[in-house]
Structure formats: C-alpha cells, structure tokens
Amino acid sequence: MNKEILGNLLRDALNPEFLEINDRTKSHSGHALSGGGGHYEVRIVSSRFAGLPPLARHRLVNTVTDPVRQEIHALTIKAYSPEEFAAQNQPKTQRPAIALNVL
Hints:
Structural class: alpha+beta
Shape: globular
Distance between the termini: 68 Å
Number of strands: 3
Helix content: 25-40%
Strand content: 15-25%
Number of helices: 3
Radius of gyration: 19 Å
Order of helices and strands: HEEHEH
Strand order of the largest sheet: 1-2-3
C-alpha cells in the first residue's frame, strides 16, 4: 500500500481541510513483528472532528482506514478540528522586552 491510497480513503470519508501523510516505513524496515505492514503518520483537519474527544477521532480515522488495515503496521494520528488547527498555528505573540536600567 502507499500513502496515496490512504489519503484517498481519508479524503473521501472525512473531507479534510488539511491532510498530511508521512510514510515512515523505510525507517522501520526489519522491525520485529511488522509483518511487512507500513508505518504512517497522519495529520488531518476536518470539521467532522469538532466536538469529538481524541479517542473518538482516532476511532473514526481507524474505521475509515479499516479496508487497508492489514497493510498498516503502525498508524500515528493527529486529528484536529479546523478551529483547533487554526489556534495551534497562530503566530505566538512575543512578550515585550523588559528594560532594566543598570546604574
């Protein structure tokens, strides 16, 4: 399996505003008990996650990827609502510098 297949499943079911899939399979080659399955990291933003706790979001992603589950050994999921993702990616405001007068 490749990440394009995984991406198509996620796009069709969750209509993400943002989707990033990293294939980490090569860095785990020869990994004991992998059974030849791939290692993937998914970062996804969808309105379907709004109001859901993290466990429910992961279950939703796992349900969507179930048709190819036998080809996945490890799946790291970072799932956000659009509001959470926007807040997370806001530029950090800098604190004003405190001027100290040294005599």
